[in-house]
Design the sequence.
């Protein structure tokens, strides 16, 4: 009733809802407005964040991440570690089939893992350390690790644990028309690539009660104003918002759900000074940390929805250390003094990517870095190339927001020498030793070794964090959601019907 009423009101008052949907929205449909278009369904190239919307309906994962970050069984009905943390045994639900009727076996799981490991996918780190996979039976396999990987369980609950039909791996058909064992089937008839992606219920799914909708539609809507209009009209039920539109969304009768999530700030990638020698000097990096008035940026640009921080990690997380907050206070004079001590009193020029998603901050970056003598040379980057361009290693400094994972997941994602977001592959003996100590800490054990890593990163100014920014998600009255601590959008099983 709510959806049809909204649509009628939109027509009667002439609201400019964008004509985006190909199929109508009704009470049995979950209609999501996505911030980004899908890139591929190739199992090795899948990612989290906004793109998880597209693959979660089709692909089941071995484990499941709860909203608080804890892990529980899923496609694998049980899992257990050896005492030394170097063997993980997974036991699968019996009788599960892919939607084409092919049995889902331990061999299929092994094929998917090996395909990801041998790929160039940015999330191959999720299976880091898995040296060998032994198939015990159709429903049991063992992952053998050279050394413990505390992030492995989280990886198996997200991209690392995806199971696609093995015959589609590495094929153009698999990249365009996915086949999995998940709660929904990709609807090739109603899907219009780039415009709307449609999924219909999998009648044979083993856990149907966790997914109350008969159909899911996902419409890429890049513009925030267009997403708001589509929500107002009832054309979609849910979409990513931003802190700056919270009041407008509430006034329109939408529900706002928020959660402190992403680290937001500068990635000082060229810490070795290979591209820009100045950035190899710790005093220059510390000066950058002191040059930004992050409290005022948070207040006036992002509506105060976040928490100023000096750490490139989103709490709660074992890497987070409250004692480090306040290490770098906004102080232009002190920043200038550090620049002079480092031999860069006259400043220098640095190339930064001009990203559409970060463009609102560009004038602030220019002004506040300029105040300590750092001139920014902007390089335009296409929205469709943002992630590949940032990960290419060509930019010595960039502004971005990145969600957290498990503590060791964050290490292998953007701290370790092989981490994709350690784009210059910086490495020091001191940090290597700290990482080696932390790798031996299994979940639930002593966090001090993780905090020692963050202490090193903060004092050596590997990053220049601004704040931990809130994720904002908008829904109409017919749908409710909860937000996970590790992702900017809800997981598919977080959407529920309200009956309104």
Sequence:
């Amino acid at each position: 009733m709510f959806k049809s009423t909204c649509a009628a009101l939109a027509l009667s008052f002439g609201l400019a809802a964008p004509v985006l949907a190909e199929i109508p929205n009704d009470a049995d449909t979950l209609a999501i407005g996505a911030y980004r278009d899908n890139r591929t369904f190739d199992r090795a190239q899948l990612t989290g964040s906004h793109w998880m919307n597209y693959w979660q309906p089709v692909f089941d994962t071995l484990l499941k991440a709860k909203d608080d970050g804890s892990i529980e069984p899923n496609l694998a009905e049980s899992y257990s570690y050896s005492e030394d943390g170097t063997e993980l045994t997974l036991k699968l639900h019996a009788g599960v089939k892919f939607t084409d009727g092919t049995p889902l076996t331990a061999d299929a799981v092994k094929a998917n893992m090996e395909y990801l490991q041998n790929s160039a996918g940015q999330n191959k780190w999720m299976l880091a350390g898995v040296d060998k996979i032994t198939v015990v039976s159709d429903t049991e396999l063992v992952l053998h690790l050279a050394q413990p990987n505390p992030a492995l369980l989280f990886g198996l609950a997200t991209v690392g644990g995806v199971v696609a039909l093995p015959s589609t791996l590495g094929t153009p058909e698999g990249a365009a028309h996915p086949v999995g064992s998940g709660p929904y089937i990709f609807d090739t008839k109603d899907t219009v690539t780039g415009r709307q992606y449609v999924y219909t219920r999998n009648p044979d799914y083993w856990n149907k009660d966790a997914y109350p909708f008969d159909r899911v539609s996902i419409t890429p809507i890049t513009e925030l104003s267009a997403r708001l209009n589509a929500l107002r009209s009832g054309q979609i039920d849910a979409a990513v918002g931003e802190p700056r539109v919270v009041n407008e969304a509430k006034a329109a009768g939408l529900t706002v759900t928020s959660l402190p999530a992403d680290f937001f700030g500068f990635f000082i990638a060229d810490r070795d000074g290979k591209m820009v020698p100045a950035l190899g000097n710790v005093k220059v990096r510390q000066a950058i940390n002191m040059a930004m008035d992050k409290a005022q940026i948070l207040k006036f640009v992002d509506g105060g929805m976040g928490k100023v921080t000096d750490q490139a990690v989103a709490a709660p997380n074992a890497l987070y250390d409250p004692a480090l907050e306040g290490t770098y206070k906004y102080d232009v004079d002190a920043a200038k003094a550090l620049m002079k001590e480092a031999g860069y009193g006259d400043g220098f020029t640095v190339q930064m990517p001009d990203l559409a998603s970060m463009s609102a901050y560009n004038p602030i970056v220019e002004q506040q870095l300029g105040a300590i003598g750092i001139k920014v040379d902007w390089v335009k980057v296409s929205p469709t190339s943002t992630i590949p361009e940032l990960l290419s290693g060509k930019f010595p400094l960039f502004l971005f927001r990145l969600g957290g994972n498990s503590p060791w997941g964050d290490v292998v994602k953007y701290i370790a020498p092989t981490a994709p977001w350690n784009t210059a592959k910086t490495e020091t003996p001191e940090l290597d030793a700290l990482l080696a100590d932390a790798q031996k800490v299994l979940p639930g054990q002593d966090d001090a070794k993780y905090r020692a890593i963050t202490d090193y990163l903060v004092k050596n100014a590997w990053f220049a964090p601004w704040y931990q920014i809130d994720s904002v998600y908008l829904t109409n009255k017919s749908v409710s959601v909860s937000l996970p601590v590790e992702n900017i959008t809800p997981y598919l099983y977080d959407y529920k019907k309200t009956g309104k």
Notes: Confidence is low (pLDDT under 50) at residues 1-19.
